[in-house]
Amino acid sequence: MQTLMLALTSLHPGFLAAAGVIFAGLLGVCFAAVHLVMMLIAIELILLGACLIFITYGALMADPAGMVMALFLFAVAAAEVAMGLAFCVLYFRKNGHLSFRSLNALRG
Amino acid sequence: MKGPFFILPAFLSLFSLDLFAKPNIEASAVASIAFSGSNGFLGAQGASYGFAGLCVMLAIATLFVRDTARALLALIGTFLGAAALCLTLKAEFLGLVIIALYVGAVAVLFLFVMLLLGGRSAFQVEGVADKSAPYFSTYGLGGISASFILALLLLALTMRIPLAPLGRFMDISPVLITQLAQVLYGPLSCGLLLSGGVLLAAMWGSILLLSEPMRSLKKEKREQLRSHLAHGLKGPEKGCELIDLPLYTGLDGVSPQDAAERVSQQRGGQPSDFSKKEDLQNEDDTQNKDNTQNKGGG
């Protein structure tokens, strides 16, 4: 317990925020995603947490490579959102809803 | 959204973690720590803890607020908290990029798609409004987080753990944009090209995804129009009907009345609508003439 507290309090808050945001995103993907847009939001949170880790590492180590990696992750996140929302619009046109529970078209 | 309900645990977390960081304080000196400059509760490190707590709280609120529009607002708050955290890390450029990219593009894209799909009604999923749905209560989540943070606070006041600097007390030297550019266009230029390719592919793919149904829609409309012409707009009785006619009926100097007669012969000997209309018009003209003559005579 003492080691955990030591790790928690001695880490930079950027890492703590990244851990919390990634945890919230995983929680959302597992439990709170009832429609496709909510799933995309949860994935966005996970990517934001990864970006925060890169940015904090780059700032603490004075290494610009970490921040450049964060920039690449931004591009990946933007691409993911564009494709995901296009898929959402397509799914809504076809089915009339965005519910996750009836997404079983590939089931044999 | 229960704004104060989430802000309070954020400040409590900030407070407890700052007490962890200063183990040798007395409990009565809390107020002096809160306003003790750059190393205190409201100083630079305290601000980074505050933004981190706010970021996490809003991220959790994003997933547990039932209304999707409010969830998107909480997501924007999370992005802003992350940008503020970047500012405390002396990474101003990336903080501004987060605001421009995430808040200005991604969150607005989410809102725009939500608007296009019909507002909040499009996101109503069956069973979610019920209490039996697998959606956690906002109050329950806030209570759990507040109790966890209060437990941390009590532990911090009692245990007084000695700390080792593992990033918490490191001096942060700012990374300049020129250094970023040197790395971005130097050793990692291949990654820059790849990320540009990923963005281009995503743009192309989304346009293709959304333009393909439009083509099929046009095909469907064309088929629908053809079937309407063949079977009538209001059913086969009232609509027009397409029949095969010989070439000489329309364009070789035949009068319309003769053409109508030939069409009626093709259809089985019944008088055509055109010839009926002509007869009716002739009858109307003769009646009108009679009426005018009678009026003139009277």
Strand and helix layout:
The complex is a heterodimer of chains A (about 110) and B (about 300).
Chain A: H1 2-10, H2 13-32, H3 36-60, H4 64-95
Helix pairs in contact in A: 2-3, 3-4
Chain B: H1 3-21, H2 30-34, H3 44-64, H4 68-88, H5 92-116, H6 138-159, H7 177-184, H8 189-231, H9 248-251, H10 256-266, H11 273-297
The fraction of residues assigned to DSSP E strands of chain B is: under 5%
Largest sheet of chain B: none
Which spans of chain A have pLDDT < 50 for at least 5 consecutive residues? none
Rg on CA atoms of chain A, Å: 18 Å
Mean pLDDT across all residues of chain A, rounded?
83
The greatest interface here is: A-B, 72 and 86 residues
Description:
The complex is a heterodimer of chains A (108) and B (298). Chain A is mainly α and 108 residues long. Helix content of chain A is 80%, strand content 0%. Chain A has helices at residues 2-10, 13-32, 36-60, 64-95. In chain B, 68% of the residues lie in helices and 0% in strands. Chain B contains eleven helices and no strands. The N and C termini of chain B lie far apart (87 Å). Residues 23-42, 129-134 and 161-166 of chain B have low confidence and may be disordered.
Task: List the main descriptive attributes of the protein structure presented here.
heterodimer; A: 108 residues; mainly alpha; 4 helices; 80% helix; elongated; B: 298 residues; 11 helices
How would you summarize this macromolecular structure in one to three sentences?
The complex is a heterodimer of chains A (108) and B (298). Chain A has helices at 2-10, 13-32, 36-60, 64-95.
